[in-house]
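Progress report, Aim 2. The chain analyzed during this reporting quarter is listed below.
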Amino acid sequence: MAKSNNAFIKKQKELNRKKKQQEKAQRKDERKKNSAGGELENMMAYVDEFGNITSTPPDKKTETK
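Predicted structure tokens for the chain:
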């Protein structure tokens, strides 16, 4: 009497699951390397005297009280 394919199928499923986990981890690492980063300087936005949003801070000389 032949063995069932149950053990073979379980092994194949386990291999596929591990392969997917490795690929997912690899994609995660690539995203981390290629990301612009969540640094505070990259997220800062300033409003100039005309109400426009800019990425550069305002000059100290032009500030009004």
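The chain is about 50% helix and 5% strand. The longest helix spans residues 6-34. These observations will guide the mutagenesis work planned for the next reporting period.
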